[in-house]
Amino acid sequence: MPVEHSGHQGGPCGKRVGEEGWRLGWSVPGMARREEQAEGDNHLSLAGNERRPALVASLGTLGLWLQQDMADSAQAQKLVYLVTGGCGFLGEHVVRMLLQQEPRLRELRIFDLHLGPWLEELKTGPVQVTAIQGDVTQAHEVAAAVAGAHVVIHTAGLVDVFGKASPETIHEVNVQGTKNVIEACVQTGTQFLVYTSSMEVVGPNIKGHPFYRGNEDTPYEAVHRHPYPSSKARAEQLVLEANGRKVRGGLPLVTCALRPTGIYGEGHQIMRDIYYQGLRLGGRLFRAIPASVEHGRVYVGNVAWMHVLVARELQQRPALMGGQVYFCYDKSPYKSYEDFNMEFLGPCGLRLVGTRPLLPYWLLMLLAALNALLQWLLRPLLLYAPLLNPYTLAMANTTFTVSTNKAQRHFGYEPLFSWEESRTRTIRWMQAMDSSAQ
Ligand SMILES: NC(=O)c1ccc[n+]([C@@H]2O[C@H](COP(=O)([O-])OP(=O)(O)OC[C@H]3O[C@@H](n4cnc5c(N)ncnc54)[C@H](O)[C@@H]3O)[C@@H](O)[C@H]2O)c1
Ligand SMILES: CC(C)CCC[C@@H](C)[C@H]1CC[C@H]2[C@@H]3[C@H](O)C=C4C[C@@H](O)CC[C@]4(C)[C@H]3CC[C@]12C
């Protein structure tokens, strides 16, 4: 059903919880926080001595060992990472994950068109956090941010399947922006580049062919007309082709691309929009897509973790991983787009009406086409950008799921968050978001 991105009402979610926003509670399950690790480093001599009694034979040995420890940790904390788009939905999770899970970080640069106020809280930690307000379409701004970085994680992009931006702008940000990042790496001598691609570089294609639990090698006719997937596909191609180019200093550039399916989790704007739409409809959503159509989803924390891991391992296994693509996956269940959303919206008091679509598909297509026409007609006056348009309908109505273990085989990836945890975190975020809005 057409859903507009606007408006805001309180809802049943918020009545249940009165907790802090998700940003304040961000942590990783079963793992020491980076700050704790840093604190642990300060006490290494004691903890280490318990484990290695031979080393405490004399005070002199202890002193030597301490010095060695300090040298090791100075050596270890030497890397400079740059995250483009670091203030976006995914980018913020990547930034926070790096701070928690990358002990070799010395400096983390966050480059974004719009910097978030939450960055301030990160500046008090042991890693130097440098916020850079900049535009990936401006080559000189990108080059200045990249200079001296060891690794670039390029997540910045214009994610627009609703017709908010022009095809030219989407191309400019996603393709030219990526070219600028690649050239900046080459010119300044940065050797490792991770690109956030998308499942959409593969499909669903314009013919609506299903991709049922496929992997990176599954044959599929990837044909696009929409500006967003076309731009992502071109940018991914550029990144992969750049693998092996000599960067300043003569070393080879090592690149790879991660292809998330539909990401969900804390900060997911579309989930928020659908939630408020449901509230406006009296706590109901009306089924539009058959439950049998599977749509791939992956939790944002696991996508962020994959970025951290791939960036780390790319430095260890450039021959294996350079020029490769990896789907992002975890244990999220295979469901239709709407049924999956109900995993979070249900506990927030929303109901999905109907076991089958309430409207025939041809009527939905007609509505989608009408929306597209209205968008075009109204463009000189206002931006009409509902969720339902011919492209989003095709996306939601075409089976596209992945089943692969390539990331596990190549760089030891295992999801950091179980499905239960991903679900709980997402629900808590929705509840907190709603209570803070009231
Ligand atoms: N959200 C998903 O479901 C999904 C799925 C697959 C892939 N992706 C990809 O993941 C990446 C991040 O997506 P997201 O969902 O977090 O989107 P987002 O819009 O929340 O984040 C994108 C970030 O890029 C920044 N940005 C946009 N234009 C820029 C420019 N010209 N210069 C500098 N920064 C700019 C934005 O300010 C924003 O902070 C994108 O590349 C997207 O294509 C997203
Ligand atoms: C037809 C209506 C009932 C529902 C409309 C849902 C629609 C807005 C959803 C369905 C699928 C969603 C996309 C999908 O999860 C994957 C991606 C890839 C990513 O690169 C960007 C986001 C995107 C396009 C999702 C956008 C919202 C979509 C189209």
TrEMBL record:
Swiss-Prot/TrEMBL GO biological process terms? steroid biosynthetic process
Question: Mind listing the UniProt keywords for this protein, alphabetically?
Answer: Endoplasmic reticulum, Isomerase, Lipid metabolism, Membrane, NAD, Oxidoreductase, Steroidogenesis, Transmembrane, Transmembrane helix
The family classification in the record reads: Belongs to the 3-beta-HSD family.
The uppermost taxa in this organism's lineage are: Eukaryota, Metazoa, Chordata, Craniata, Vertebrata
Spell out the Pfam families in the cross-references.
3Beta_HSD
Give the organism the record lists.
Myotis myotis
Q: Part of which pathway?
A: Lipid metabolism; steroid biosynthesis; Steroid biosynthesis
Q: What class of enzyme is it?
A: oxidoreductase
Q: Provide the catalytic activity annotation.
A: (25R)-cholest-5-en-3beta,7alpha,26-triol + NAD(+) = (25R)-7alpha,26-dihydroxycholest-4-en-3-one + NADH + H(+); (24S)-7alpha-dihydroxycholesterol + NAD(+) = (24S)-7alpha,24-dihydroxycholest-4-en-3-one + NADH + H(+); 7alpha,25-dihydroxycholesterol + NAD(+) = 7alpha,25-dihydroxy-4-cholesten-3-one + NADH + H(+); 7alpha-hydroxycholesterol + NAD(+) = 7alpha-hydroxycholest-4-en-3-one + NADH + H(+)
Q: What is this protein called?
A: 3 beta-hydroxysteroid dehydrogenase type 7
Molecular function per GO: cholest-5-ene-3-beta,7-alpha-diol 3-beta-dehydrogenase activity; isomerase activity
Report the EC code(s) recorded for this entry: 1.1.1.181
